[in-house]
Amino acid sequence: MISARTMGQDGATLRIQGWDGSMLGARPLGGADPLGFAAGDANLYRYVGNDPTNHTDTTGQADDTTHTIAHYVATGNLEGLQALVGLESGGLTAAQQAALNAGIKAVQAARAAAAAAAAAALAAAQQRLQQIYQQFPATAYKCVEAAKATANVFTNLGQKPIFIKITSPGTGPFFPTPDGQSSFSRNGVHYACQVGGRVYDALTGSAGMTMIEYLQYLNKLGLNPAVSPVAMPK
Question: How many CB atoms lie within 10 A of CB 190?
């Protein structure tokens, strides 16, 4: 944020000061951009392309292309940087070309690191889900505990899981397991966790199922499932 525009000691320079007292830029009082149209802005009286939130120009000599490169690097905009390669081909200074190349490499490295971290986190989450469903198998009648533990896994990944309640009107309190030898509910109610369109419980395993797949699966078990989002019971 710009908090003050003051006169320089020479009486002919406009000093642009930030809210924290830092010097954001200087320009001859009433004068145009000293770089002229070479700065890349058709408005010669505009400061840093009218974007002081993201850019500063303490010397008054920075051009819009340099600002753009710096902004794209700071915001991780790889596509913007790559677009400059084509649009500015042959029109960049050596310093700009170096900044562009370095910026592309930096953003690519940051994205690769983020992707690797996300993959590692997902692998750890899959392993944790497997542990949960081993600890609370369907036949243990611990669907509430399993759903809560599952929700914690996805919450730690920054996602927003919801709890769903499954009932089966008219089919009785016992929900049969796939082998038909046992059941995964004794009261006609089952709870699961839903995240990003997929359902997770001891029946689906760590891979989960889409809601359609899950309903079809329950149909094959002879159930007539009705699903509704709920607050998880204590």
Answer: 26
Rg (alpha carbons) of the chain, rounded to whole number: 30
Determine the Cα–Cα distance for residues 195 and 162; give it in Å rounded to an integer.
7
Whether residue 130 is contained in a domain is answered as: no
Contact 33, 41 (CB under 8 A): yes
Q: Is residue 10 part of a domain?
A: yes
Place of tokens 């927003």: 160
Q: Within this chain, do residues 60 and 157 fall inside the same structural domain, yes or no?
A: no
**Three-class SS state of 106:** helix
Question: 138-194: per-residue pLDDT in tens?
Answer: 999 999 999 999 999 999 999 999 999 999 999 999 999 999 899 999 999 999 999
- pTM value is 0.63
Question: In this structure, are 78 and 163 located in the same domain?
Answer: no
85 vs 159: CA distance, rounded Å: 36
Asked if pLDDT for residue 47 goes beyond 90, the answer is: no
Q: What's the pLDDT score for residue 94? A: 85
Pairing assessment for the beta strands 198-200 and 175-176 based on DSSP bridges:
unpaired
Residue 122 included in any domain: no
Q: Give the percent of the chain with pLDDT over 90.
A: 59
Q: For residue 59, what are the domain limits?
A: 2-107
